[in-house]
Amino acid sequence: MGEQTEFEEGQRAPNPGVYVEVGEARSFHTQIQNPKRITMERGDTFPETTNKNRKWKKAEKARVH
């Protein structure tokens, strides 16, 4: 079983790093303009996203192909 890569408001960060908002449709056609970026430490709680359909994802894993 793989590790979780997307997180919702209120969940705790599993690892330190920079996290960005991603949309519900992970298509390059629906990129988020100026997504929120946050720096988290392990155990920090994820804040609210700009839109209820968005989630947090570690920046290095949120690349668009």
Automatic annotation (TrEMBL):
Alphabetical list of InterPro entries matching this protein: YjzC (IPR025549)
Name of the protein described by the UniProt record: YjzC family protein
Organism taxonomic ancestry: Bacteria, Bacillati, Bacillota, Bacilli, Bacillales
Domain of life: Bacteria
One Pfam family, short name: YjzC
UniProt-annotated stretches for the region Disordered: 41-65
